[in-house]
Amino acid sequence: MSKRIYVEDLNVYYGKFKAVEDVSLKVEARTVTAFIGPSGCGKSTFLRTLNRMHEVIPGAYVEGAVMLDDENLYGPKIDPVQVRRQVGMVFQRPNPFPTMSIKENVLAGVRLNGGRMSGKAMDELVEHSLKQANLWNEVKDRLNSPGSGLSGGQQQRLCIARAIAVQPQVILMDEPCSALDPISTLAIEDLIGELKENYTVVIVTHNMQQASRVSDQTAFFNLAAQGKPGRLIEVGPTERIFSTPQQQATEDYITGKFG
Ligand SMILES: Nc1ncnc2c1ncn2[C@@H]1O[C@H](COP(=O)(O)OP(=O)(O)OP(=O)(O)O)[C@@H](O)[C@H]1O
């Protein structure tokens, strides 16, 4: 159920503006990788290229390859909708569909993909996904209530359940805790630790402690100056990046000298 990602020489453009330059990166299956770096260095942009989500912005395009196991996501016959089925995404602000029930929210991605299921199979999928998202016990008695009635942290776990329900190989998370209180944040961090048993997880975070708590590998991005493209400066096991970074810029960033 989980695949590795190999990125080769990736450049990302918004029209004529090159936002990210020359990134090569390996993410092993069933690991958590954190992207860190100062604002504007291209973390979110790069993350979105891992499921072609950047393509929703007119004029955005990439050069290079993103391999999911042996398949180039940018190959000529690849359908971006299928890519997003394999590589799910959770955003900064929890975004359940407000008028839909909790149950319908979990099933929303499956329905979008045209999946046909019996009522029993749907109930099982809802229960399984909510359990994997550590939300089942809190909502099992109100599955038909609106998703918008949950707390922010619960809504974010609902969005994770929605991502899980389509059975992706990879889950991308773009600052998934930035809108959450500390307790909800810890709940999501615990959940990320559990998700990596089944999925490959990539998370963008501004929180250095969070990166060191949840990730196996950390990638530090930086940009030479405003208006220049972001680059991958250093990537390695999280423990090493935070204890003995090899680049001065990495050390300056993780010790809070800039960013
Ligand atoms: N839709 C867009 N159109 C044009 N340029 C964009 C767009 N989104 C981002 N950019 C530019 O791409 C660069 C990288 O932005 P991005 O949001 O990926 O950085 P980031 O590291 O995720 O920043 P932050 O930590 O503040 O979220 C920036 O110069 C930004 O202005």
TrEMBL record:
Locate the transmembrane regions by residue number: none
Q: What Gene Ontology molecular function terms does this protein carry? A: ATP binding; ATP hydrolysis activity; phosphate transmembrane transporter activity
Where the record annotates domain ABC transporter, the positions are: 5-248
Give a Gene Ontology cellular component term annotated to this protein: membrane
Record SUPFAM superfamilies: P-loop containing nucleoside triphosphate hydrolases
- One GO process term, biological-process aspect: phosphate ion transmembrane transport
- SMART domains attached here? AAA (SM00382)
UniProt keyword annotations, A-Z? ATP-binding, Nucleotide-binding, Translocase, Transport
Translocase as a keyword?
A: yes
* Entry protein name: Phosphate transport system ATP-binding protein
Organism from which the protein derives = Naumannella halotolerans
